TrEMBL record:
The keyword Transport applies. CDD domains: ABC_TM1139_LivF_branched (cd03224). Belongs to the ABC transporter superfamily. This is ABC transporter ATP-binding protein. Residues 2-233 form the ABC transporter domain. One of its GO terms (molecular function) is ATP binding. Keywords: Amino-acid transport, ATP-binding, Nucleotide-binding, Transport. SMART domains: AAA (SM00382).
Amino acid sequence: MLDVAELHVSYGPVHAVRGVSLAAEAKRITLVLGANGAGKSTSLRAICGLQPAGGGSVRLDGVELLGKRPHRIVREGISLVPEGRRIFASLSVAENLRIGGYTAVRSRVGALTDEVYDRFPILAQRRDMPAGLLSGGEQQMLAFGRALMGEPRVMLLDEPSMGLAPGMVDTVLESVRAIADSGIAVLMVEQNVEAGLAVADTVSIVARGEVVRSGEAEQLRQDSSVVHALLGEAALAEEGTA
Ligand SMILES: Nc1ncnc2c1ncn2[C@@H]1O[C@H](COP(=O)(O)OP(=O)(O)O)[C@@H](O)[C@H]1O
Ligand SMILES: [Mg+2]
């Protein structure tokens, strides 16, 4: 469904993403692992048009999206749930969802909101509460819900478990699994290696702007020391370039 090939992104002289290729398919979670500064967030931002790419291609069912404007890419069916969630703290849960529904046909907004509340009943209970008063895990569910309001076919998730209480990490990642199972293609960056591997189907490891390893999560679950070794090397390499 989503095919990212040979993506390049630079910040002035900093060549942050150097030929990254990634894929995401309906009902599957592609997990992207990598040390801090490896280029994971930059890749996600470039895929959804928030960061201009210097080269490569981003195809959704064969249609080239690279160079299209972010709102157009959302309409094509790709939603980003950014690092740090970026919900509107002073607005209510319901208002945050309405903002997520801005690309939806107006007559669909009610049904889409109900679907989000069915998926995350806690959000229904808190619908009139300012979003800033939700727990970290609830805010992450709201961020997922806001993205789901756009009826995405592909969701890009940037570190959804970041900053969550340990008990909440599995709950949030299980909801990512449920989102994928409902037919959406998920491309997820995660720092939490074990919890990410537990729900993922495919894994790509990024170091210094390049994919250094891709494989089935099933295999890596059996021997996650391979992943840790690669991430350890990647972290050292990242420090070396910093
Ligand atoms: N807005 C920016 N301006 C300049 N350099 C940036 C910017 N954002 C990220 N970078 C640099 O690009 C590289 C990749 O960053 P990022 O994609 O955020 O990594 P990751 O998400 O894997 O931690 C890093 O070297 C980082 O310092
Ligand atoms: Mg990042």
